[in-house]
Each structure stands twice: as C-alpha cells, then as structure tokens.
Queue: 3 jobs
Job 1
Amino acid sequence: MAIEFQYNKTSMQEMQKQLNMRKRTLPILQNKESALRLEVRTCKEEAVKLGENLEKQIQKYEAMFALWNE
C-alpha cells in the first residue's frame, strides 16, 4: 500500500522556490560554518595561552607572598 502525494500547482511552485533558495544558500552556510569552526579553534588556543600566562604570574607572586607576610 504505497502512499501517494498530490500537490496543486501553487504548492509545487512554492516548494520549488524553497528548494532553489536552499540550494543557493548551502555554500554560504558551509563557508560560515567553517569560518566559525576556525574562530572557535583560535579562541580555544588563546584561552589556553592566557591560562598558562595566568598560572605563571600566580607562581611569581607566590614566591613574593612569603616576603609580604613578614
């Protein structure tokens, strides 16, 4: 028992317009997605570097902390 779909001409035209629009915008969306992934990667790397710098600064101040207590 196969299901058959019947559409009128206006709904078929509307669906065709939507399909054409999606075909046109697909490369744009793919480019934006790859650019976003690249930006996320660079932000993660920068966050790691900033975390390492923070740890280095904290270690420098811990050495001086003993002098401040005296």
Job 2
Amino acid sequence: MVPGDSLYSISDRYTVRVNELAAVNGLNVRTEVYIDQRLLIPTQKAPIGLRLPAVRKNPKPPKIRALSALSPDLVAYMESRSGTFAGAIFEPRSGIMYVHHPQNSFVAASTMKVPIMLTLLSRENAQDSGSVGSREPLLVPMIVVSDNGAATTLFKKAGGQKAVQAEVRARGLTHTRVEPDQWGLSTTTAPDMARLMRSLYLGQRLNPALRRSALGLLGNVVEPQRWGVPEGVPDSTYIAFKGGWLEQDDGWQVHQIGVMETNGRTFVFALMTAGQPGEVYGRESLEG
C-alpha cells in the first residue's frame, strides 16, 4: 500500500474487480485503506461467480434422504477408509439433504471459525441492515489462513460461548455444543454443519452484501489448505469452504464444510472424519 491508494487503484494494479477485492477482504468499495494495511488479492473466481438465491429469512426445513441415494460411490469409498465418517450434502435444486451417519459427533476444530464469523456478521446486520461489507479486519486471517489467534480474539469479541451458541441455535443447529474456553473443542455433527452452510448460502440473518463477504472469504482459502474436496472436483468448480483438523487420542479428525457449484449444480456439504491414522490420510479421505 502506498499513499493515495484506494481499493480502485489496487484492483487496477492486480487486474481484479474492485467489488471482488472488497468482498474477499470483508470491506466495501468505499472503504478507505491505510499505509501498511494487508489485503487479500482474490485467487479464484469471486463469489459473484456462485449463483445465489434471493435471501430467505425463514426457509423450509430440507427433506432428508440417505446419502447413498445421491452418491453410493462416495459412501462406499468413505466406508472403505479407516476410522469413522459422516456426511451431509444439501442440494438446493431438490430441497433434499442427503445424510450418512447423521448422529456421529465430532470435535469441530477449525470449522468452528465459520460460526464465529457468522455470529459477528449477524450482529453487524442487526445493527446496520444496510451494511455493504464487514468492518472486522481479523475475519481475513481467521478464515483465509485459519489463524487461531485471530479466532480466539473474535470468539471473545463475538460474546464467547453464549453468543456463538445462540447464533448456531438460531440457524437451526441442534446437535452443536460450543465450548466456553476452547472453541476448537466444540462438538458438532455433519448435518448441523451442512445446516450452517445452508443458512449462509440462503442468506439467513445476513443481508446480500454480508453474505457475499462471508462467501468471498471462504472462497479464497490459501492454497496450502485447499486439500480434500477442492482436490477432488473439476478445475471449473467454484468452491467456498473451511477445513478443520485436529489430532486426538484415537487419531486425527479432519473435516471440510462448504458450498460448491460444479457442472451447473450447487451442493452444500459437510464431510467429517475421526480416527484417521494421520492428517494426510484424513485429507485423502475427503478427496474421495
């Protein structure tokens, strides 16, 4: 950043759209930038490339079907792997959520950073329904590089366990328990995480600009963390996601939750594993 810079001049310099640059940094195009400020330059097609439905405040609950009805090969593959697996995939076109082992509970690890982000954005929306972008700079390191220090700071700023628990409950999550002292040890299920991402995709508790800000951050996770599902889909796929990984006494828990658009179809997903022999093995399990 140099004196006189603006989001417009920076977008010209890096040949990106100014609204994409603003969205991925949780800003709006009119935000003033300052010298030495760090900005994320979009690495893939921005969230405007994802076709989003009109914001729905109170969508109908999804119909539930077995995941094997959607993808028997995925279920067979995951069941062939070591450890345990649960999955939930929501297809907006049909309104169906496909689930496998829906009652399995997992340590959320860094996927809990998404509820923390949504708690802050929902509050911002409640305070200013016309907000055109988040004013919280720590959202970028928390989501894009999975910075734990930023997450701890924002967890406290959001109001801690009580506020984040209230947020996930308001979004329809019934089997998620937020830990008061160590947010990464919160527990959840694959259907709950799919409901969380579905609520974001549908724009619940956010205005359209804040929804795009959240998806912009999730769509620009750094390359070293783009393993698992992003590795197993076509290059043309748009994907906004967050991973979580944590070693436990019985092995690694490795998860990914997100929204992707591929071959003209949109899917909201949550894939969660436990008891993986190693972190790399868990990543390969999610790649499928």
Job 3
Amino acid sequence: MKKLLILFLTAIASFSLAGCKKEKENILIGFSATLTGTYSEVGVSEMYGVEFAIHLINENGGVNGRQLELIVKDDLFDETTAIENDNELIDKGVVAIIGHSLSQLGVSTVQNINEKDKLMISPSIGTDALTGYNDYFFRVVPTAYDEGALITSMALSEAGSKALFIYDNDNFALTGNHKRAFDDYVNENFEYQPNSYGFDNGIDSADYDNIKTLVIDNNINTLVVAANSLNAGNLSFLLEQLTTNKLNIHFTSWASSQDLPTRISSIVHNYYSYSFFNQFDVSETFSGYNNLFFERYGRNLDMMSIFGIDTVNALYHALESSQSFDSNDLKQTLLGAFNYDSVQGSFSFDENGDVLRAIYQFEIIDNTYFLIDN
C-alpha cells in the first residue's frame, strides 16, 4: 500500500507538522526484541526503524487522527523474558506486538500470542517452524529455508563447486533451516554428501582448525556461512591463514550489516554477502528515507531498520482500514492487501502471513560491498 510511502514523501518536503494536538487516546503498539548482548545488533536496528516510521506517521496526523505510542522492551534473548514482555504488553492494551528479532524465540512467543489472540508482526523471525500456519503471526522477512535454498543455488552455480556449510548453533532455529535447505540442494544436484560444521559461543581458533581439516580433506572450494557479522568477521580473519584452498565464501543475510565489509580481509579468498537490502539504491525515495533517518539517528538505513519500517507500514494500513482493532479484523485486513510499498521495492503476504520479496547479491572487495547484477 502507498499510504505510508506518501507520508514519508510528505515528510521529506516538510519535516514536521507543528501544533498536532493529542485530542484522542493514543494507539498502543508493543515492541520486544533482543536489544542487549551479543545478538543485539538486529533488534536495535529494527527498533530504530519501527520508531522512525511511527515518528513520521505521528508527525503527519497519526492514524485517523490518533497518535501511535510505542512501548519498547528488551527480551534479553531469553524465552521466559520474551513471553513475560509480550504478556505485559498485552495487559497494557497494545493493538499488536512487533517482534521478536531472533528466530530462537519465535516458536514459544508465537504460541503465546496465538493463545492470547494477539497479532504479532516480526521484522526478522525466519524459522520455518512457523511456516504455513493460519494464525496471528506475520513476518516481513522471508523464511529461512527459502533464503537458504536461494543462496545455496547461487553459491553453487559454478561448475565444480564443492561446498561446506558453516552455521551458528546458538541460533539453530534460524541456521538449522538454512542447513536443511543446503543439504536438500546438495543432495538433489550433486553426487557428494553435504558437508557441514556447527559452532557454539562464537568462532575461535579450535573451530578454525576443525574447518581447515574439513576444507582440505574434502577438497572444499565454497563455504556457505550462516552467522552474524561479528562471527563472520572472525571467521574471515582466521580463514585468511588458509592458503592451500582458494575459497568462495558466501554469508547469509544474517551477517549483512553495514559493518560487515570492515570485518572482512579479502586478500586470499573471495567473499559474498546476500541481503534483502540494496545499499547502493540511489532512488529519490530511498535517499529521502535515508536522509531523514540519518538526521534522526546518526546512522544510515540497513536491512533490519527497513524491515522495522515495513512492519509499521503493514500495521499502519491495517489500523487505518480495519473495522476494528481486534486481532482477527487486523489479520484479515493485512491478508486482503495485494502489495505493500517498502523503502526499496515492495512486499506481499501469502495466505498464512509469510512474505515474498527480492534478494540482492554482493561481493566484498577492499572492505566495500559491490552489487552483483543478477
């Protein structure tokens, strides 16, 4: 839908509307994600995107004259805390919850909100354990399996490719689906058995020794890596010591933060990253969004902040168009829309609330992303 996009373009021309009176009761929206600790980078970016979109909506009159009010909670990457947060938000009267940021917390929190009949829209829970259910859970990130299958097919497109899949066990709810997609693709298209290696509590020298042995013993020339940007960078640093095999190393979208290229030393090997965000977008729409975002937060838009914006985009449409703020009415309104405009391109929901959107491929050279035109 174009309503939120129009608001953003209006905001570019006139950054704020003065004298907006809060004559009506605010509409409460909950947000809960991992905002501290090792895996906080995703949740923090999403929080900025969500707050940014709500800010612009409120500056331009809100939803049918009512202001949106965001209640933010840190789930601490802890299942019990995540559920407690959601229950507290529901008790406060939120119309919907935006969250959570990590797939590891997806199954339990979605089960909880379904029991409470409360709509949840996630910017980044990609686990396939939640795929295909007609419930109150929506997401603007493609499923982990679909992403894994697409990335594996692109990574292994060259003749003679032989791959090793490396994944973070700590977020297996996400990376396990990437692994399953990798295994399925290799089994269907190659004569060798899938090779994989999982690590816990971050990449270290012992992991490197194990990976080095697997690479040399199995004549590996391609790595597909499901890890965050910190672990991806640490892996790159260690792999640059391995000179016996020239490797093509492909990182899933989990690693594709703005700082990933600065963590990569691409002297020995070739590095690729995949993202649902194109940082080389020079369109007027993206530039307008990004300028306002930078002016407010001192940082540029990234994939997760855009996904945060997209959740608000979809929810904004539902709040404006639904007969009521009842979760079932909001759900039916979300499902009834054919297409939603995003900061980049567009996205849509299938009949179960799963999303469809494009993916971009980049090569990392000299600490810089370069878009590959596929």
